[in-house]
Amino acid sequence: MSAGAAGFEELQDLYSKVLRDLARTPIHRGRLENPTAAARGDNPMCGDRVDLSLNLAGQVITEAMFQGRGCEISQASAALLTELVRGKSPAEARAMGQAVARMARGEALDATSPELDRLAILSVVKKFPSRVKCATLAWRALDAALAGVKETSSE
Amino acid sequence: MDTHVAASFDVTRIRQDFPILSTQVRGKPLVFLDSGASAQKPRQVIAAMTRAMETAYANVHRGAYHLSEVATEAHEAARGAVQRFLNAAEPEEIIFTGNATGAFNLVAHSFGRGMLKPGQCVLVSEMEHHANLVPWQMLRDAGLGIGLRFVRVTDSGELDLDDLSAKLADGTVGLVSITHMSNVLGSVTPAATIIRMAHEAGARVMLDGSQAAVHRAVDVQALDVDFYAFTGHKLYGPTGIGVLYGKRALLDAMPPFFGGGDMIETVTLERSTFAAAPARFEAGTPAIIEAVGLHAAIDYVNAIGMGAIEAHERGLVDHAMRVLTEVEGLSLLGAAQDRGGVFAFALDGVHPHDLSTYLDRSGICVRAGRHCAEPLHARFGLEGGSTRASFGLYTTREEIDFLAQKLTDARRFFA
């Protein structure tokens, strides 16, 4: 029974209140008018989708919004992205995405910053290998948008 | 015989044949409700494959020595077992492929390119698994003037026979390729009716038996079907082997698909002539051990009796209909009159992936997503996919009750 109970605790870690609030909050949801960069990320296996639009002024991301559909992890990750990349340079934003990918693979992160603490709510997916793609989908869309590519896929 | 076996169908005893069913997942007993994706294997299959590798392995059809003869005999015995399983007229009508997908690609290339004429089309339905859709799209896009059309599915998840009739009416349909049982809706299609209608319109018929052949007896001669495909791994056999049945006259008229060893008659540097079916369609070293495993799987289900398996699963389906429809917020996809043990559903407010992760923590394996049937999900407005529970001969009512209970819990958790 103890192993089962631990399993359930992990489930509650994964679906933390912070993550679930993020998934359900309408803040940053929508599409920017005339964005300077935009891309769509699809997970063809489950149909999850993140449509990301960004405004850049010089080397700073000033606005980020997303719309999409999907599981709570994919949507929370997208919401978090739109919150954290504002005010960052494309390189800083990409680095956050790489941090998410490393956390999802279960790798330790040495640097500490307020952003990494906030991103850490996604780190629980390392215990759920089949859900890593959900957590990283929005960040793949970010990479695509910054590279001028319109569509990307989790596959 | 079936009646006798049906009376003795003992799911507890059957479960003991499947070693994996006594394992635990995260400390919980395994509740495997994803047999529609791939079924678990009985120890009889595992043992037969091990025995073949330990005592009787060699390449087939080419060694003039005892071991190769033994392996060849085992391989051809598997073909005979499949022939009897489908009630095909002769073993030469059974072609081993890699899986059901391999069977569709073979027919799309050999029959599609070799025997369909420009201006003709292939007719599939909206509820097809991608294996019975994508090869036909590729044929359509090959620049041969061969079209692709779609039979509608009704809101209740059944094949729209009026639409089938309308689409057959202009006489341009060369092949109707339709599932015998939907891997999402569980709907069993009226195969005999489809085949009669298609033949009257001059079209050949291929059935996708990937799900159906697992759940009920199939008689290709009684159906008068032209091609029938299924896969080993859903029939409690190994991965890596599938079956294409084709009527002998058709196979003899079809050009080869893959070229290589074993499928030839004579070879010079300039040109080759080809062997008759089935060798013509089985280039290269076949899945020898897998054929032995498939043979064992067929022997296994035959010993229980397909009638008994069907009866057991009908009981499970009735039970699942009762308990799943009682789960608050759950909507089932499809409401076909004749359905097998496949239930796809949406649970209000819970994404299929989140639900699958939740159920996994209780040891329950279900499929989340679009189950390789993306157009069908679009048809029912579920672009985000669905959750699917699918049964095998080892599924119990208690497992279905447990699923229903955990679905209720999940809805509360995600509320």
How would you describe what is shown here?
- The complex is a heterodimer of chains A (155) and B (415).
- Chain A has 155 residues and is of the alpha+beta class.
- Helices cover 45% and strands 19% of the residues of chain A.
- Chain A has helices at residues 2-14, 17-24, 72-84, 90-104, 114-119, 132-146; strands spanning 37-43, 48-57, 60-69, 151-153.
- In chain A, a hairpin with a 2-residue loop joins β2 and β3.
- Chain A is globular, with a radius of gyration of 15 Å.
- In chain A, 46% of the residues are buried.
- Chain B is α/β, with parallel strands linked by helices and 415 residues long.
- In chain B, 41% of the residues lie in helices and 16% in strands.
- In chain B, β11 (264-267) and β12 (272-274) form a beta hairpin.
- In chain B, α3 (43-55) packs antiparallel against α12, α4 crosses α12 (288-304) and α13 packs parallel to α16.
- The longest helix of chain B is centred in the first third of the chain and has 21 residues, at 66-86.
- The chains are: A alpha+beta (155), B alpha/beta (415).
- Chain A binds chain B through residues 1-4, 6-8, 10-11, 14-15, 44-48, 69-73, 128, 130-131, 134, and chain B through 26-28, 351-354, 357-358, 361-362, 368-370, 374, 377, 383-385, 413-414.
- Chain B: Pfam families: Aminotran_5.
- Chain B: It catalyses: (sulfur carrier)-H + L-cysteine = (sulfur carrier)-SH + L-alanine.
- Chain B: Residues 31-403 form the Aminotransferase class V domain.
Topology, pairings included?
The complex is a heterodimer of chains A (155) and B (415).
Chain A: H1 2-14, H2 17-24, E1 37-43, E2 48-57, E3 60-69, H3 72-84, H4 90-104, H5 114-119, H6 132-146, E4 151-153
Parallel strand pairs in A: 1-4
Antiparallel strand pairs in A: 1-2, 2-3
Chain B: H1 2-7, H2 11-15, E1 24-25, E2 28-29, E3 31-32, H3 43-55, H4 66-86, E4 94-97, H5 100-115, E5 121-125, H6 134-140, E6 147-151, H7 161-168, E7 173-179, H8 191-200, E8 204-208, H9 212-215, H10 220-223, E9 227-231, E10 242-246, H11 248-253, E11 264-267, E12 272-274, H12 288-304, H13 306-325, E13 330-332, E14 342-347, H14 352-360, E15 364-365, E16 367-369, H15 374-379, E17 386-390, H16 397-414
Parallel strand pairs in B: 3-15, 5-6, 5-7, 7-8, 8-9
Antiparallel strand pairs in B: 1-2, 4-10, 9-10, 11-12, 13-14, 14-17, 16-17
Helix pairs in contact in B: 3-12, 4-12, 13-16
InterPro entries (chain B): Aminotrans_V_dom, Aminotrans_V_PyrdxlP_BS, Cys_dSase_SufS, PyrdxlP-dep_Trfase, PyrdxlP-dep_Trfase_major, PyrdxlP-dep_Trfase_small
Protein name (chain B): Cysteine desulfurase
Keywords (chain B): Pyridoxal phosphate, Transferase
